[in-house]
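Hi support team,

I've been running sequence recovery on a batch of backbones for a student project. Most finish fine, but this one hangs at about 90% for roughly twenty minutes before it completes. I'm not sure whether the input is malformed or the queue is just slow. I've pasted the structure tokens below so you can try to reproduce it. Let me know if you need the job ID as well.

Thanks,
M.K.
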């Protein structure tokens, strides 16, 4: 009897404050036209100063649990993908567990750049398929505004804050669920996208603060070049692992980092726009939350149907890249 890992609940949250391109024109030397044509972004959501990654994770998780018709104390495990944990320790997963329920269940944070949710889904589905756990909460939550340098126009325009959560459950009487995943990391490209200080390599000091080393640094052009190769590779290899080809894919849900990166994948596979989810215009790059936000939007628009072959694909710091192939529904 094969155990499938199905997505039984999906929830998302974006803070209410919206930062438009026009707002950014007043903060850095940029303009709406540049941002829109180079990235596809019009606006992004920004958390309140006191609002934490865990706060956002909690809101998304409650919605996902409600849809799955589960109480938090019925969960077996929590995985939080994040690059901006509230603190280096304790983990965001432990903080979330305490906010959700008093039941002590295992959980940990997973850090794989913007590919974090893809990694979490791969780990979670494996733990379910091998019979270890039956109900897992997966969360992708990032407060990128906390590490964005609003004096650096090359990065300040790109990022937003949000969270997404999925409940994964074991089912035996279905052909739906996660069919395959493909994961890669290559640390040789680590310097292309990094947060230099605040870890054990460069602990916080007056110098690191003065030199703005606690903000994200990125080589945009090289990251772009990497992304346009990594995304199609991950789509093809994920489908291959599932025994499928691009023709079988009903919906592509790509990481939303730059519309031109998504367009390159669309052209490469000659995809009809109906088969690709794009919502970068309203959220910018929310890292590990882009994919749940895109799935939620697709569902609201009636584009995500039971039985659809859905491919989630992302790339990010590490460098990391990967995909999950899901037969949607539960
Ligand atoms: N507003 C106005 N001008 C800007 C600007 C801004 N916000 N940011 C950069 N520029 C300028 C540059 O200074 C440069 O000026 P110059 O020609 O006078 O030197 C010009 O625009 C072109 O810069 P360039 O970096 O070549 O632009 P680009 O088309 O490559 O776009 C990115 C830059 C960052 C949008 C793009 O490289 C990108 O999206 N990279 C991938 C990033 C990514 O995916 N990161 C997340 C990984 S998870």
């Amino acid at each position: 009897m094969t155990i499938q890992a199905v997505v039984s609940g999906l929830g998302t949250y974006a803070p209410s404050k919206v930062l438009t391109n026009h707002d950014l024109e007043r903060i850095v030397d940029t303009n709406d036209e540049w941002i829109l044509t180079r990235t596809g972004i019009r606006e992004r959501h920004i958390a309140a100063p006191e609002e934490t990654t865990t706060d956002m994770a909690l809101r998304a998780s409650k919605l996902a649990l409600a849809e799955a018709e589960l109480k938090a104390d019925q969960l077996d495990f929590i995985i939080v993908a994040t690059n901006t944990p509230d603190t280096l320790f304790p983990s965001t997963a432990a903080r979330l567990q305490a906010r959700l329920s008093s039941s002590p269940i295992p959980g940990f944070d997973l850090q794989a750049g913007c590919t974090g949710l893809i990694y979490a889904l791969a780990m979670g589905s494996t733990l379910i398929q091998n019979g270890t756990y039956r109900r897992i909460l997966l969360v992708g939550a990032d407060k990128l505004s906390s590490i964005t340098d609003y004096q650096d126009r090359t990065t300040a325009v790109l990022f937003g804050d949000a969270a997404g959560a999925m409940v994964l459950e074991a089912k035996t009487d279905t052909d739906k669920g996660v069919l395959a995943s493909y994961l890669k990391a290559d640390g040789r490209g680590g310097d292309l996208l990094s947060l230099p200080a605040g870890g054990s390599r460069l602990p916080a000091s007056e110098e690191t603060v003065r030199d703005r080393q606690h903000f994200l640094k990125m080589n945009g052009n090289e990251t772009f070049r990497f992304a346009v190769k990594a995304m199609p590779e991950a789509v093809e290899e994920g489908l291959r692992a599932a025994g499928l080809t691009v023709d079988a894919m009903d919906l592509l849900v790509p990481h939303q980092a730059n519309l031109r990166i998504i367009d390159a994948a669309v052209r490469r596979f000659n995809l009809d726009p109906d088969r690709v989810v794009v919502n970068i215009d309203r959220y910018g790059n929310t890292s590990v939350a882009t994919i749940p936000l895109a799935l939620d939007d697709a569902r609201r628009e009636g584009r995500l149907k039971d039985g659809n072959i859905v491919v989630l694909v992302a790339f990010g710091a590490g460098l990391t890249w990967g995909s999950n192939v899901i037969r949607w529904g539960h």
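--
Follow-up from support: It reproduced on our side and the slowdown came from queue contention, not your input. The mean pLDDT is 97. No action needed from you.
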